[in-house]
Amino acid sequence: MIHDLFTFSSADAVVAWSATDDRVMGGISRSRMRFHAGGYALFEGVMSLEQNGGFASVRAAVKPPPLAGVTHYVVEVRGDGKRYKLSMRTAGRFDAVSYQSTFATVADTWTTVAIPVNTFVATFRGRRVIDAPPLDAARVNQVGLMIADGQDGPFQLAVRRISVEAQ
Q1: Residue 94 class from Cβ within 10 Å (0-12 exposed, 13-18 middle, 19+ buried)?
Q2: How far apart are alpha carbons 53 and 29 in whole angstroms?
Q3: Of 7, 135, 138, 162, which is most buried, counting CB atoms within 10 Å of its CB?
């Protein structure tokens, strides 16, 4: 069974998304989530390593999925050949543990990527949190997209939908 968390078929779908880039720590990366008339969202910008930078991200609040037994998060994307992270938060605070899983994209090709829940790693400010509990999909209240890991330069990730899959 699949449940859509976000579908980006209208301009209203990107209103709740906001950028949080390395500018919060002195970097100069910049990103945004905008609607494309083709019926999808674009996570785009420039990731820069200058001034100790190194990440660009967007995020939005979400209600936990109404499904028990979530096994995968599913993203339908058209990438630029770079690697991105899907991130989840379960705490209500802005600066809290984030659960992240990396996925690769194929340049100029729409793909559907199923990311197992058990591959999400707890991080805080880019560092792994060893003693954090595993991701509990029933507690997720924020979803995000990120580019990091030294991938300097412009980026663009088209997104049609973000969903959960349950048994």
Answers
A1: exposed
A2: 7
A3: 135
